[in-house]
Amino acid sequence: MLHSTLIFIFVFVVFVGGFAQQSQSNVQNSNKDRNDKLVYRHVRQVRSSQSEVQQSDKNAISSVKSSPSEKLSKSETASALLANSIECEADIQKYCVKGGPKLIPNLKVLRCIDDLDQAANLISKDCQHRIYKLKYNMVRDVRFDDEALKLCAKDIKLLTDCNEYTDERGSGRLISCLYDRLPNITDPSCRHYINQLESFLFTDWRLSEHFATACFQDITNLKCGRLDDDNETIPHNQGAVISCLSKKHDKLSTNCLKQIFRLHEMQSDDYHLDRALYSACREDRERFCSQVTSGNGRVYRCLYENKLNTMMSTTCRKEVHRRQKVVVSNALLDLPLIRACESEMREHQCVTNSQDPDKQLSLINLLLCLEDRVKKGNQIKDECRREMLTHRRMLMSDYAVSPEIISKCKIEMTQHCPSLYQKGASGTINQRGGRMIHCLLRAARQESNFSRECLFNIKSLVRAVDPGSDIRADPLLETACRSVIDTLCARIKPGDSNVIMCLLDNIKNARMTEECEDRLMEVAYFMARDWRLTPKLMRTCQKNLLDLCKLSPSWSMSNNMTDVQLGQYLGCLYQHKQQLSDECRTELKRIMSIRTKAIGLMPEIEDNCMRDLAACKKPEIKGEELKCLQKKYKTLESECKSAVQKYTKMTISNPSFDFLLMKTCGPMIRMFCSNVESENENELIRCLVKNKNNQKMDFRCKTNIEHHQIISLKDEAFLSEQFRKHCNDEITSHCSTKRSKASVIQCLANLVLQDVIKKTNQIKENCRNELKIELLQRSESINLDPLLAKACRNDIQKFCSSRLAGNAQIIDCLKAHHSKVSAICYARLKKREKLDIVLPGADYSLTTKCAPLIQKYCANENKQNILLCLRRNINQENTPPTCRTVLYHRLMVLNS
């Protein structure tokens, strides 16, 4: 019994004993540790009594069946030590022994050869062929199957697929089957054994029967390997064959592609198993990843992160790039990613291509599917999030790993990014680091001749990478904005759109750099057109969108929603703002406020106003394009006019959305209107209007207050909700044909005059109060009375050219010359003067110039009686001369 045991152990040691010597000291399984110790103990026994069992060894060896594919001579049996072979003895002594024991295990020899630089040139051809035969026949040696049948008997019975191969000893299929189902193996000894065989079984393409059969024709057609007529000369570096086929995976047959993907899946855990990458990146691994332990894809991740480092060798960069392309095409080949996100993928059905089940699950589709889970309020483990972030960075860093971008955007890259685009340049750096992707993002925003296919794939890439959710997913953007982030957003936690929203909120800040702003706007262009890229809005408003806006349940994964449709949903939320939840309303306000800070964040205006914007994009008005469009409101093209109208209505309704107004008037609001809420559509702007001529008022704020007032007069749609609510009946009955706010105000003012003359009451008190406020604003500046300004244009030039528009200077000047002005001007002016008498509280000149007198003597008087009160007190000593002048003029009109 002991004798037969020693024979078996000797055979096993020769073939796989070296595996035990390579076992890691930190292996957790106690059974495996005992097996390894047992092997060591028997090895010592075998060596000490080698003379006793030598003859038995020879008998055992001679009884072993040779591989079905090739009869080996006694000197070529798989059991022979390479170090003792005629072909390899000298090379092994020279490169591998180095003063150690002469006879070293075959595994140690193989690893020594693998670690040699230029091994193909250093090792003799005879030895190379000897090594290949050893590897080729080891997997087909029945003793491997016999050992598997012993150690894995329990699992083989449970794994019916593998049980079918128990009668095919020497074919290699049993071992291959067990490895394919390694996660399902429960016996620790079996798992350890299969793991130990892994580096032999799957290093070279010739060692997989299915791979050799499936890919033989592809290898020949694509010239990825060579075999002579005698089938004797076999490529030494089989990893190069896999590498070559991987680079041309889009040209492979279905069966070969399946086998290539299977090999990559096996290699994804440990980069040692990817022979081409391992050989090309040996020095780079030491340079960049020396502190990273191999396993679970950690070395791959490290190399991914350093791929664009100028110190990485070109050969290594090409192999890393090749590896990335395969993963992008089939995400299931990246086991660390799949392992980290396994539960999420299973629960959310992210294991197949939702668009086309017959196609491989691409990395982009997997990321979109997992993001769909997040956007719908579900949780994802931190480990899965980290893996997703790693792959997002990979996609955003290098356009060349995305086959769709290469194939669908070739023309755009050539036309718009010629300095970055080099055909077939897979190992250069200049066009990478995210530069090409951002160049395409910039061109998509600025150029109109983008193909639909290219734009679709760019949008898909941006949605998958989702830099708006986490700026770390976009290395170029993060690098460009690092100084700004450290200054303005230092306390902001990454993720959930926090950092990028902080940057957008500060886009006009003096500390914002031009480089950061440019890169930020390239990403924000797509964010503004797809609110699905703003996760916080989606999370807080999802229920409101489903209930109020009839959002489709498949909204997150849909590729068919146009920019217009996406914009309509955001508009729907704003229309129902009073019905939104508090969280949704707050987030919507934040998003809408940020959007108003730059024309590039408002797609509904930028896309519909291209021609009109061309006249507004002058250096002196950069950042004020919206203000320019509003000034040209009457002459805008119809689609642009409609878009500007919607925006202006929003700012009239909520002045906090008027970016220039809020930016320039912030300190003034704190000074004069600290008790007024900015969301109140009337109170805030009325407070600013009331104080706009105050000596402490900032001139930039005053300019934007007046712009706000003037633009509001250009369309009846700009009537405030409060004004429309109180005057709706009057407007509907008497002023429905008026198309501008100025015309509506004048129409209602005429009704007031008619009421006085005819002693009727066509205007209710609430409407009259709203009208007084509008008329008071109108009487302050000729610019706020476009009807009077138009009628008196020539008279203003003739009599009042030296006067300013505000503080009622031009209006008072015209009134002082009312007997000299033209007939058309006189007709308009006469109505204004009559209103001054009927509604003295809406007379800006009177109420401001006589303010001290009104406050002292007429504070308790009804505003309708202010004129009479002032007449009684006109001779008071403290009456200002300017008040006396305007009061005399009003009394003359009253008595005429």
Structure description:
The protein is mostly helical and 896 residues long. Among the domains are: 200 residues, no CATH class; 63 residues, no CATH class; 170 residues, no CATH class. The longest helix has 20 residues.
Short structural description:
The chain is mainly α.
| Mean pLDDT, all residues | 79
Strand content: under 5%
Termini separation (Å)?
A: 138 Å
Helix content class:
55-70%
Shape: elongated
Q: Which class do the helix and strand fractions yield? A: mainly alpha
**Low-confidence segments:** 1-79, 201-207, 225-237
Main pleated sheet? none
Give the number of helices: 52
For the secondary structure, the number of strands is 0
Q: How big is the Rg?
A: 41 Å
Give descriptors for this structure.
896 residues; mainly alpha
Which helices and strands occur, and which strands form pairs?
Blueprint: H1 2-21, H2 30-48, H3 50-62, H4 89-97, H5 106-115, H6 119-122, H7 125-138, H8 142-151, H9 153-158, H10 160-163, H11 173-180, H12 188-201, H13 209-221, H14 238-247, H15 254-267, H16 275-280, H17 282-288, H18 298-305, H19 314-329, H20 335-340, H21 342-347, H22 363-375, H23 382-397, H24 403-408, H25 410-416, H26 435-446, H27 452-465, H28 475-480, H29 482-488, H30 498-505, H31 514-529, H32 535-548, H33 563-575, H34 582-595, H35 603-606, H36 610-614, H37 625-631, H38 638-653, H39 659-672, H40 683-691, H41 699-712, H42 721-734, H43 741-758, H44 765-778, H45 786-791, H46 793-799, H47 809-816, H48 823-838, H49 844-849, H50 851-857, H51 866-872, H52 881-895
